[in-house]
Amino acid sequence: MSNFDPKSILPTLPDQPGVYRYFDENDTIIYIGKAKNLKNRVSSYFTSIQNHNTKTRRLVQQIQKIEFTIVHSEFDALLLENTLIKQFQPKYNILLRDDKTYPFICLTNEHFPRLITMRRIDHAIGTFFGPFANPKAMNGLLEMVHQLYPIRTCTLALKPANIEQGKFKVCLEYHIGNCKGPCEGLQNESDYQIYIEQITNILKGNYQKPKSLFFERMQQASARMAFEEAQEWKEKWELLENFQAKSTVVNPAIHDVDVFTMVSDEALAYINFMKVINGTILQSQTWEVKKKLNEDESDLLTMLIWEKREQFHSEAKEILTNIPMAIEFQGAKNTIPQMGDKKKLLDMSLKNVLYFRKEKADRKAAEESGGDRKMRVMLKLKNDLRLTQLPKRIECFDNSNLQGTNPVSAMVCFIQAQAAKKEYRLFTPRTVEGPDDFATMHEVITRRYTRLLEEEAELPDLIIVDGGKGQLSAACDALKAIGLYGQIPIIGIAKRLEEIYFPEDSLPVYIDKKSESLKLIQQLRDEAHRFGITAHRNRRSKNFLVSQLEELEGIGKLTAQKLLKHFGTIRQMYDAPVEELEKVAGKAKTPMLRKQIKIWLDEKA
């Protein structure tokens, strides 16, 4: 039996900030936490136990010893907690450190420094920039730097004595203009150092100084009438300007901020981090954390912010969040912007984290479906079309007419990537005269979704229009008129090259011809076409038979339509009992009608 009695220990706890540690029967630390008030926080675990979740109750049952450390402030408690969690890694704590080792760019400490990439920091080697959560972005930055500055890539020990003794010879990099040949003393170290200073600014996200230098050199060369040299400086200035323009997402006046957003559910928290300098996102990462206990969102976010700022060596004076931090860090202000460019940054970060969570949920659904093909196809279509929702219900429209006669519009519906024929609909244009595909599409879309709105019926997750930009534009105008534009994704598919058009985008998207998502779109389009053509032919056949009946003496259009609706064909009409014919055509017309039908059939035989 355990001798642990929380009632005897809790009164002795101090009303001060600190860090507490829980041990199990094996004297192993199972949980470490921080507190603004140690007595209140620790006592909360042992009172109102019925309000705790299952994991917290299990933790409390295993506690056999409590230790604590008093500190000066809640911020100091956060630092100590973070250090102890990394050291002891208790099983009930969230392990904050990411398993990945992200790459850094290192500017070496040597004569004529080089740029290299490393995954472990060793300050004896050089100055480190990063880490970079996206290696592709890091490589793009390195490539641009090497285009701007002819710095060496060799590993030669370019000490002054070695260069003076003529130990080295220039390589191919010198001959193709990528290096100035410091190995043979063709470039002095002071000139080379100017490149290094400019590169350092770029790696820190400060583009203005190197841009100003390029612009100044361009003007100086132009004043000397050295136009070729001026053109070279201009190209460098444009290269850096274009790189910055692609990277800048908000006002460049936002100098140095960290952006953190978090959404969570019972088991997981999803976090996005963006490092922004001069309006440029230098770092971006989204990840998930498995909750161990019922952690408070503010506490959890604060721990994660501290961890990432430490990992990415951030000293930003402002931290933007969507949830208030539990405590503010020394020298860093926490802000939840409500408007302006900082709000745009926060919204962008939140959009990333919500998309990440959605992708995780979709992937989990696909795995739980046991590799179900329909789920796989819908997920592929969602990703190919950049949809926010899984396209479980898709409706596709097609117009059919022949030389302007008997126009009909077909709508087919696929649910869970499978034809739902009971949901198919046919539309006969009411307001359009002649073969006007655009006007017909506008009318049909209006009628279809106005009715769904009135009936409060389920709206589709995706609308497909058979046709190019014209038909798509007409459908979009209809959705705008009824207030649904932007609420339902809509695309057009052009038949010739299977081009996919998006609203307000003049350039089409081409999906891989072998892609399952394109095959699903084609299947919808072909089914709508088949359904429409079949209905169109039936309508043409019916109209032809009506016109033939009208040729018979004493038979008007109304009677002809009634006869055809009842009997289907002229032959069935003739073979029917007289009494049945009399019910539809009337006794007075029946004898003459049968006689004329007999003559007409004999002539056609």
Automatic annotation (TrEMBL):
Keyword terms, alphabetized: Cytoplasm, DNA damage, DNA excision, DNA repair, Excision nuclease, SOS response
Main location: cytoplasm
Residue span(s) of domain GIY-YIG: 15-94
Record-linked InterPro entries: GIY-YIG_endonuc (IPR000305), GIY-YIG_endonuc_sf (IPR035901), GIY-YIG_UvrC_Cho (IPR047296), RuvA_2-like (IPR010994), UVR_dom_sf (IPR036876), UvrABC_protein_C (IPR050066), UvrC (IPR004791), UvrC_RNase_H_dom (IPR001162)
CDD domains named in the record: GIY-YIG_UvrC_Cho
SUPFAM superfamilies: C-terminal UvrC-binding domain of UvrB (SSF46600), GIY-YIG endonuclease (SSF82771), RuvA domain 2-like (SSF47781)
Pfam family, one: GIY-YIG
DNA damage as UniProt keyword: yes
Annotated UvrC family homology region profile domain residues: 337-479
Similarity annotation: Belongs to the UvrC family.
Quaternary structure annotation from Swiss-Prot or TrEMBL: Interacts with UvrB in an incision complex.
Free-text function comment from the UniProt entry: The UvrABC repair system catalyzes the recognition and processing of DNA lesions. UvrC both incises the 5' and 3' sides of the lesion. The N-terminal half is responsible for the 3' incision and the C-terminal half is responsible for the 5' incision.
Name listed for the protein in its UniProt record: UvrABC system protein C
Subcellular location: Cytoplasm
Species of origin: Aquirufa regiilacus
